[in-house]
Amino acid sequence: MFAVSSRRVLPGFTLSLGTSLLFVCLILLLPLSALVMQLAQMSWAQYWEVITNPQVVA
Predict the structure, then answer these.
(1) How far is residue 55's CA from residue 36's CA, in Å, rounded to a whole number?
(2) Torsion of CA 31, 35, 41, 42, to 10 degrees
(3) pTM across the whole model
(4) What pLDDT digit, counting tens, does each position of 2-28 carry?
(5) How far apart are CA 32 and CA 12, in angstroms?
């Protein structure tokens, strides 16, 4: 009955969205994974000393 239009309003939207999400994920996930790896090497005493440091609290 009705013809389905396959024309996209924004051509290339999926490619640009995928590229943008990839870079955002890399920018967010790389530092967070480095933080987790650094925390995994610390004891609870060292961790508590770091987070209660006056420079960190301020």
Answers:
(1) 21
(2) 160
(3) 0.53
(4) 666 667 778 888 899 999 999 988 999
(5) 30
